[in-house]
Amino acid sequence: MLRLPAYRYHAPRRLSDALELLARFGAEARVVAGGTDLIPNMKHRLFEPAHLIGLSRVDELHGIEVSDGWLTIGAAETLSSIASHPAVVASTPALAEAARHVAGPQIRNRATIGGNLCLDTRCTYYNQTEFWREALGYCLKKDGDTCHVTRVGKKCVAAHSADTPPVLMVLGAELDVVGVDGSRTVRVEDLFVADGIRNLRLQHGEILVRIRIPIRPTSRAVYRKLRQRGAVDFPLLTVVVAGERGDNGRWSDIRGVVTGLGSRPRALTGWDAIASDGRLDDDVIESLAQRAHAQCHPLENMIVDPDWRRAMVPVEISRALKALRTTTAD
Fold first, then answer.
1. For the chain, where are the E strands, in sequence order?
2. Which of 109, 160, 267, 326 has the highest Cβ tally under 10 A?
3. Beta bridge partners of 259
């Protein structure tokens, strides 16, 4: 049986109290909401904080509402509530779909969207018990000095494996972050860096408070997830495509994001030139899919063959774009 290390749990009810606790305990503290990622990692001795600061009772981190053309979601809202909330389903159905595909219902009832945004990167050589990791030789991400994936590198290539961030990226979402030194707004695409050890631009002592998504009536988005089983599993590949549909049936600003391949979600480039005339016919879709294939090079950081995962990139991109082509206004 895997046991948790000793820690002290704090349950503040105000954001200011949570920030004060973070400032007081410093590097010995971590925040926790649903705990669906942190607690298993603690059992594996990947993290051993002396203090856990619970955020589930902090009122400022809850709520889902539409106002002044924005959908606002508190960071402590569960994935189950996001998947089923009428405002989310009506205004950003791709986000509801992504939330619905995370793990299983028991996890979604506890896991939060803030936690999904801040999910730790994952790797075959990292997400293991301490006994397993010691027997192999610790990896670069935890206690070692070598990446077992690249076998030579001093750069960790653990993969970003969260479902909601790529959807939020294509929707142009912004994040409100609060720390002891004040508040700031971060675009979702600016939250991540290509570092498998720490891929978030969040400072210790900062808390993600809410997600704000602009509602654009002409915007359409499609989410697809590739995994071994139909439920529970982390993605082997996530694809999200989006675009603005005009009254004449032409498309503009067609964009795509993939994740599950590298340490951060990757925005696909070069699509504007391919789809410049606004058509989204089969030839254009094929060209966009091949452009995505050329940009994606997964590594052996998951248990499935990387060549197969790369081969599935154009397949899933093509399926997503064809689904996008058939979307209509709600």
1. 8-10, 29-32, 51-54, 64-67, 70-74, 174-179, 182-187, 206-214, 219-226, 237-245, 251-259, 266-267
2. 160
3. 238
Give the single-character DSSP code of 145.
S
Residue-level pLDDT at 327:
87
> Residue 153's CB: how many other CB atoms inside 10 A?
12
User: Residue 73: exposed, middle, or buried by beta-carbon count in 10 A (0-12, 13-18, 19+)?
Assistant: buried
- Report all structural domains of the chain as residue ranges with CATH numbers, in order of start: 1-58 (3.30.43.10), 59-118+159-214 (3.30.465.10), 219-325 (3.30.390.50)
- Amino acid identity of residue 20, one-letter, is E
Name the residue with tokens 């400072």: 203
Phi and psi at 66, nearest 5°, equal -110, 130
pTM above 0.85, yes or no: yes
**Distance, CA of 31 to CA of 53 (rounded, Å):** 5
Low-confidence ranges of the chain (pLDDT < 50): 330
